[in-house]
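@channel sequence for tomorrow's demo:
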Amino acid sequence: MRWWDIDPVLLLERELFPDDAWSRGMFWSELAHARGPGATRRYVVAEDGGRLVGYAGLAAAGGGEPGAEEPEGPAGATGDVQTIAVARDQWGTGLGARLLTDLLKHATAFECREVMLEVRVDNERAQKLYERFGFVPIGFRRGYYQPGNVDALVMRLAVNGTDTTAAPGAPDTTAEPKGTGTTHG
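structure tokens (generated this afternoon):
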């Protein structure tokens, strides 16, 4: 994702998450940490025929510089899936899995030992996607999504070494999903 993607991202964000959409400033703040040698974020968009149809973001924290050695081994950062959004007309095409795969590959680059996320308790479609990738529920955050006061299910993916390949049974995301075009960071 680049600065010129923010306007179409905001349109999709407001369509999908009208009650708790991120602001322009939140995306700018995240993108400020997504480039350069000290980058701690990965944001990607997916386009179909020039139309933005999805986006996703990952933050890494707590591990120091990529490749740095600590007493426990590699950097040991924790990844946090900040957002994944797919246009409604793209649901069921595999685009969500493709975006998540991209984030998990970058979690490897950030040397994350685990990847965390929060998902609305009423978003069963997303929960099933995350479970297919090996995420397991570890708790709840009461009233996390505001202003609707909706609880979040907290999920965690334990990373073996720094390999974030999908769990057994996860969808094959090596093929281009039908109905989607290019992705770029």
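heads up for whoever presents: DSSP finds four helices and seven strands in the chain.
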